[in-house]
Amino acid sequence: MVDTNDEWIISRTGIKERRILKGKDQGASVMAAEAVKKLCEKRKIDPMEIDLLILATVTGDYVFPATANVVCDKVGAKNAWGYDINAACSGFVYALVTASQFIQNGRHKKVVVVGVDKMSAIVNYADRATSIIFGDGAGCVLLEPNTEGYGVIDYLCKVDGSGRKHLYQKAGGSVKPPENNSVDMQEHHIYQEGQQVFKFAVKEMADVSVEMMKRNNLSADDVAWLVPHQANKRIISAVAERMEVSESKVMMNIQKYGNTTAGTLPICLWEYESKLKKGDNIILSAFGGGFTWGAIYVKWAY
Q1: Catalytic, out of 229, 232, 268, 281
Q2: Mind listing the pLDDT tens digit for each residue in 135-155?
Q3: I need a labelling partner for 136 at 20 to 30 A (CA). Which of 25, 33, 123, 300 fits?
């Protein structure tokens, strides 16, 4: 469909395969609900115990209602309230930071954070700049109170709205509502200027990650894992190098899933969970369209 080949894709991005959600009426909530159900089974909790569900996505089932509402209904979280966060690829970082405040202020005991995107819904598969990158996926985590000093320790989140012209969806919002012409012009798909995004992502992801280490007196040896947004293997390697963290400590599964946007970080945590130890110092870092970016210092709790 596009002028490229397997070798070019792997050398530029590190992506070898991806997952695509297919079937009629299959939206982001399908994947998100499955992730939440499996989390409840593993933790042995009833969905009725969930107080709040915060869901990060740019490909929600509908413009409204929030996909968080749909997921609560699908999993039977009848006592929860929830809402969506739109911060593109930084969505899970923003949602995790937000959720941690509800735990820290003592108002909630069980908060679920979901990162999910059905990027296939907004990818133009004739556009080489984007069609080779994105996949579909979802993951989630549960936040609970503790008195041992584990969980979200520190965070730093930033935005630069002037960067929106380099990575965004041109039509579908209130500035340019859907119409025949916007559909014909392929303006409901992802638009990305790869080189500009690459430069910003490397610098800003690295800057906030290093800042997390400095603010919390962490050396590279102190960091057990770096969990970077899975956008591009070269970006991940550059961020790790700047942090002086060896690649053996970097969670990476872009080769299997591609860029699932808000789904990348929780999917990484799920895949590497068996390697994590209680008390591990973990840095999560992401960069997304808009521009949005941020890092979180987490001390693993189990």
Answers
A1: 229
A2: 999 999 999 999 999 999 999
A3: 300
Architecture in CATH of 6-147: 3-Layer(aba) Sandwich (3.40)
Its pTM surpasses 0.85: yes
Beta carbons of 188 and 169 less than 8 angstroms apart: yes
Q: Is pLDDT above 90 for 1?
A: no
Question: What kind of architecture, by CATH, is found in domain 152-299?
Answer: 3-Layer(aba) Sandwich (3.40)
- The active-site residue out of 72, 259, 268, 281 is 259
- What tens digit of pLDDT does each residue of 74-85 get? 999 999 999 999
To the query of whether residue 259 is one of the catalytic residues in this protein, the response is yes
Q: What residue segments make up the domains of the chain, in order of their start? A: 6-147, 152-299
**Cβ pair 136, 31 in contact under 8 A:** yes
pLDDT for the residue numbered 113? 99
Three-class SS of the chain: CCCCCHHHHHHHHCCCCCCCCCCCCCCHHHHHHHHHHHHHHHHCCCHHHCCEEEEECCCCCCCCCCHHHHHHHHHCCCCCEEEEECCHHHHHHHHHHHHHHHHHCCCCCCEEEEEEEEHHHCCCCCCHHHHCCECEEEEEEEECCCCCCCEEEEEEEEECHHHHHHEEECCCCCCCCCCHHHHHCCCCCEEECHHHHHHHHHHHHHHHHHHHHHHCCCCCCCCCEEEECCCCHHHHHHHHHHHCCCHHHECCCHHHHCECHHHHHHHHHHHHHHHCCCCCEEEEEEEECCCEEEEEEEECCC
Average pLDDT value for the chain: 97
Active site residue 268: no
- The catalytic residue among 40, 69, 72, 89 is 89
89 is catalytic: yes
DSSP β-ladder status, 225-228 and 167-169: unpaired
